[in-house]
């Protein structure tokens, strides 16, 4: 296990998450624009087409120059998190479209939790300036972190009561 290996494994995992988010928005621009409109994003249709571009750029940087990609991702997450806080404080609970039309959960403080977990991965990516081969332990550590965060966030989601009968 090495710090650079864990950092690069985190960079790769984070790059994958950013690519998934960007592609989901690219594939569902109208639904993303509708969600952005509900969130009060100005020029929502243009934003729905624009937002995936810096996500893809940050993902590329994470793979090629992990520390620079980590800084770019931290800046994106700071921007997104600030927006989330302003929407939550305004009482807006529309779906975030963070992962395109697949994101149907309303904006919540859990969105900030997810962003915080991603920010920790971006910080870990600062430990390596160039691609390295992560060891199996490095990769398993990062995969375990991602899975644990995913499970915790999923369990923390409010449950919608189902009708039986």
Short description:
This protein is 71% helix and 2% strand. By secondary structure, it is mainly α.
Q: Can you describe what's shown?
A:
This protein has 165 residues and is mostly helical. The chain has 7 helices and 1 strand.
- The structure class reads mainly alpha
Low-confidence residue ranges: none
User: Tally of extended strands?
Assistant: 1
Largest sheet: none
Q: Tell me the overall shape.
A: globular
What is the C-alpha radius of gyration, as a whole number of Å? Answer: 17 Å
As for the number of domains, it is 1
Mean pLDDT: 89
List keywords for this structure.
mainly alpha, 7 helices, globular, about 160 residues
Question: What is the secondary structure topology, with strand pairs?
Answer:
Blueprint: H1 3-27, H2 29-38, H3 44-50, H4 52-64, H5 66-89, E1 98-101, H6 109-125, H7 136-156
